[in-house]
Amino acid sequence: MQYLKTLVAATALAVCSAGVSSAETLKIGYIDPLSGPFALTGDTGLKHFRYAADKINDTGGAAGMTVEIVPFDNKINPKESLVQLQKAIDQGIRYIVQGNGSSVASALIDAINKHNKRNPGDEVLFLNYAAVDPAFTNDRCSFWHFRFDADADMKMEAMTDWLAEQQDIKKVYILGQDYSFGKAVAGAAVKMISEKRSDIEIVGNELHPLGKVKDFTPYIQKMISAEADAVITGNWGQDMTLLVKAASASGHKVPYLTYYGGGLGAVATMGESAIGLVKQITEFHQNIETSEDQIANMDRFQDRYGTDYYYQRVFTLMEMFDRALDDVGENDPVKVAFALEGMGHETPYGSVSMRKDNHQLIQPMFISTFSDDITRKLEGTDFGFKTDPDGVIKGEATRTETTCQMKRPS
User: Which of 6, 10, 128, 288 ranks highest by number of CB atoms within 10 Å?
Assistant: First the structure.
């Protein structure tokens, strides 16, 4: 009998210890491409999340829990993303981060909504760091989704404000990737150009397969033939790199108005021919004036990983997430979501806040131009980006109307 009591006590102790051990580690599932044509983008994002997690752990963890980033390769495929999401859920992971591909984010939002409806008490929260289809914080908004990048419309407003002042630009060519994000960029460009500069002619509006084009020279030749004075593109990853490579090789010297012109790999392909021509609208670039502490932080990241510090919004996301966990004091995605709503936060580049009505982060934005007159150089080149005169856009100026009708758990 004594043996049986001892065995029962030991078993109970083991179960209790296992529970404590599990509670001490908070796992975040990272679902993004780690193979295929967009592997560089996904791998670099993973490095940023792991670095941010290490910073949280170095200061005591999130609500005392050690943060672990668990990678899942979705190959930029929505169906594969759902497979990886289920794997994460099966492992007890209740927080998902993703950013590359609005088609992927769309699938994740739908699946997480359904999961949470069917599994009360086992909810999953989706923290989106880069998928910028405006629908996600409008008609398709979800309590379970938070976005930490400006959406496509917010960025296009700034881009077309600049365009409206350029009286020498009379013809514009729009090129994008053939999925929801590329279509959103094109639609916003056409609408806003019409409103702000009705005299500008759209001489091309074309979509191409995502990650399939190996040589963009035929597209560049169409732009040249159409006598475009400027190009607007939302391309990212390999599609951005190969586009600017073809433009440089073809000598197409017109402004390229981009969301991701400074994306990883693009800078090294541009060279002197792109100086003063490639522009981007972003929440960050390395030559924005900031503190010595932030400069040292960027240097440490680059020394550790041998790649450029790029995703500032990853650190904003993780710092706000850490604060929410500390406020809640426990691993409860529902309470964490409520804590994130309306949260204000100070970053090295200004104040940000998470809208309660649609879960869209409001943050300063910067219009910058490819330059060799910079302090911090990118990708081992002599080039980088420099903020334009009057290129600083205050966060509140990026706020747009929303059609979101948020449904919250009771």
Answer: 128
Distance CA 75, CA 407 (A): 32
Tokens (6 digits) for 98: 């993703």
The tens digit of pLDDT for each residue in 156-168 reads 998 999 999 999 9
CA distance 168 to 400: 29
Q: Tell me the residue type at 239.
A: D
Predicted TM-score of the model (pTM)? 0.89
Q: Are residues 132 and 82 in the same domain?
A: yes
Dihedral sign, Cα of residue 211, residue 214, residue 215, residue 219: negative
Q: Tell how strand 171-177 and strand 230-233 pair up.
A: parallel
Tell me the per-residue pLDDT of 109-142, one tens digit each, with 9 for 90 and over.
Answer: 999 999 999 999 999 999 999 999 999 999 999 9
Instruction: Please name the residues in contact with 109: beta carbons below 8 A apart, sequence gap of 6 or more.
Output: 126, 136, 140, 142, 144, 145
- Whether residues 245 and 338 share a domain: the answer is no
Same domain assignment for residues 172 and 133: no
E strand or H helix at 307: none
In order of 160, 162, 181, 203, 327, the CA distances from 230 in angstroms are 12, 12, 20, 10, 48
Split at pLDDT 50, 70, 90, the class of 380 is very high
